[in-house]
Amino acid sequence: MKNDQVILRERAKRVAGHKTETEKMGKPILVVEFLLIPEKYCIDSSFISEVLPVKEITVIPGTPDFVVGVMNMRGKIISVINIRDFFNLRDKGISELNKIIVLNHNQIEFGILADSITGTREIDADKLSIPPVTVTGTGSGYIKGITADGHILLDAAAILTSKMIIVNQK
Amino acid sequence: MDRKQEAFLLELLAEFKIEAAEHHQAIISGLLELEKSPAPPALKTLIETVFREIHSMKGAARAVNQGEIERLCQAMESVFHLAKQGTLTLSASMYDILYKVVDTLGVLLSEIDASEKSIGANRIVQLTKQIEVILNTRDLKGEEPASNTLPVVDAGTKEKTAGPSAKPIPMPVFETPVHPVLLGKVEKPLSPDTVRISTAKLGVLLREAEEFISAKATLGYLINEVAKKRDKEMQPVVKEMEQFHRSMARMIDDHLIDIKTTLLSPFSTILEIIPKIVRDLEKAFDKQVVLTIQGEEIEIDRRILEEMKDPLIHLIRNCVDHGLETPDTRKRAGKATAGSLMITITKLSGLDVELHIRDDGAGINRASVLQSAIKMGMVTSESALQMTDQEIFPLIFRSGISTSSFITDISGRGLGMAIVAEKIAKLGGSISVDSSHGQGTSFNISLPVTLATFRGILVRVNEQMFIIPTTAVEKAIRVRKEEVKSVETKQIIIYNGESLALVRVGDVLGIPERKSKLENMLPMPVLILAMVQKRIAFVVDEVLGEHEGMVKTLGPQLAHIRNISGATILGNGRIIPILNIPELMESAAQVRQTLAEAETDNYEGTREARERYILVAEDSITLRALLRNIIESAGYIVKTAVDGMEAFQFLKNETFDLVVSDVEMPRMNGFDLTVRIRDDKRLSELPVILVTALDSPDDRQRGMEAGANAYIVKSSFEQSNLLEMIKRLL
Q1: Which CATH architecture has domain B606-729?
Q2: Contact assignment for B574 to A79 by CB distance below 8 Å
Q3: Are A77 and B560 inside 8 Å of each other by CB?
Q4: Does B7 contact chain A (CB < 8 Å)?
Q5: What is the CATH number of the domain that holds A45?
Q6: Span A28-79, pLDDT tens digits
Q7: For chain A, which has fewer Cβ within 10 Å, the N-terminal or C-terminal residue?
Q8: Phi, psi torsion values for B531, nearest 5 degrees
Q9: Right CATH number for B266-448 from 3.30.830.10, 3.30.450.40, 3.40.190.10, 3.30.565.10?
Q10: pLDDT band at B58 (very low <50, low <70, confident <90, very high)
Q11: What is the distance between the alpha carbons of residues B451 and B632, in angstroms, rounded to a whole number?
Q12: Which of B556, B558, B575 faces A71 most closely, judged by CB atoms?
């Protein structure tokens, strides 16, 4: 039977070990991981202002396909887009699309649809692999790379500053 | 000077700094261009431009007691005045002096607020002396000074005796009369218990107060939901809640009005620019105007003021251009040579303000309004005979009606008044006109003191709901199937004797039609929407009622969506898009057009345009190509000529419906061409539009005398203007 001392020592070791591992990380970034069937994505949390459950979405006629509609965020109207459509990826499988991740950067704000949020974690931006061929095309400019466990890291800054994403039919 | 005046002067000074900086920049660029010694026509325009900039800056400086700036401008002005007359040619050494003056002006401008000035009175005297040298050099060359040479030397000597802070220099002969800017009469309420709050902060308060409107609606919705349950035990609570809802609604409405009244601004904030505008118009039309403004201290919602700026300027331009006669005509009619233009603002009882604009000119020409209305098909020639003044004058607010047969850039295109009336209606106000022959015209505009909360008609199209701004809805009616007529591919209904295009909102927005059999048998709900250009009857699936709320944007990502201007939130939290009516009407026209084009080639409108032949005379290759492109794009057939002589040859041998001609051309200019056309028996009725770089009353006059139908200045050339003029003259 372990006494308290031993337990504490082991715990200290674990914590210390974890720290040294973090120090080894080049550029740790905190990401939110989410599922958008069939892919697993993650996105830098510093661009996320909140995550909401999908409530009623009002369709706006005449908008491009990637614009799902607008929704009421505590009296403020925000638009919601489907990044799979924005990347021109064909629909695969059945999506639940019941979460909205609200992105925010320099006056630009909109929500992106997700099937579910799977967690948050720190990843090393230096240890990403290049995206596989399946996600090239329109989307490739908005992807930073693939994490070790197969999450596609979205380039939030590129998406938020993209001219393509702004709909201006003037 | 008392404090009120001082405060007003400070405000004026702030305006002046902005205006003067623009003039200053324009003078600099003008001088730089001039020094490159451009070709004579361009040179003339440039000198004219610089002259005007200096002149405007001088006038503005005088209004704010900036004597030094005024003096320097005055000196420069005299140089350009002579250059304009051609009695002075600017040389390199002269430019050096002019640049020195301009630099000094720049320093003076930057130091308006500074307590210590780096430029002494001596420097000013020195510079004006140097300019005198320029003027005297010209005399030494042996040229006769023009009859109206400026008294610059005189001004200089006077300055020495009176010191640098001398009163304004005597007005030069060609100067337009100074307007009673009413410096002393403006009362700006500024009591000791006033605090200064930035408008941005007040704007935030207003938005917050407006949010309560949605809260009010939400509460009403929730109470309704509870009441629907018909729970006996809940009934007393529901009663109480309903009572509370009513009193809360009242509190919210009162609060909103009170917040809005903090956002009021005096009319003087937009009237400040009027004297300058009138001054410019006087010059442009060779007229004399005495401007009187009363009641500028009266306050109104600043958002209304901002919206009213353009309509006000338009009305004033109209009064000066169409209303007031030239000094000669006035003299002959036994009137004072200077016309009177009065702007009076009065506060009416309740929450209304009246804006009254009155001139003592010729009055609206009944006959030409009627003629125009008959031409547009608004009235028949028979009914016109029985119409009273009260019925005729309001026609000027209809699109396409103009009282001037000679079209100029400023007014006479007949669209302006319609836009003015629409803008005022949008703000929740109204405009009326009264006129009597030879006595003048007066416009009466009533405006609400604060901007009303947005109201719209909630409609359903298939499964979706939309809001149509109430201001755009003329009438909601029900139309039975058998009342709809088909004309070619279009559907129309007859409403009040007028045939209106009938369009499904769903077709415009791309929402498919899905109706039950029963619905198909019932009369269709139709909203008649009216904008300046036209009225269209729109079919919806259901009219659900009126909604009051706040207009919100669709968020930064959806910058502009065609046919949608924003959205509002209902009591149940649902977002409803607000339809953008001008765009919706435009889109509706396109929907019909594609149908018409697809199914029949014989569409009347296009055939009509296809048959019209237009001759363009222009010596510049670029402009010739540009004009050809613009006119051809509207469906006309264009032939071009390189000068007036060639144009006249073509006119002799072929048949054209209209001529668009440049003024300045080799061999035969536009004026001569126009005269030749008018003198020719076969061609005398041919419409002629002159397009020119010249913009002076003399040239306009010459164009009119030559017999041109319209005159368009290149500097303010707009494609739509030209096409509109062509359409009207054909």
Answers
A1: 3-Layer(aba) Sandwich (3.40)
A2: no
A3: no
A4: no
A5: 2.40.50.180
A6: 889 999 998 788 899 999 999 999 998 889 999 999 989 999 999 888 899 9
A7: N
A8: -130, 175
A9: 3.30.565.10
A10: confident
A11: 44
A12: B575
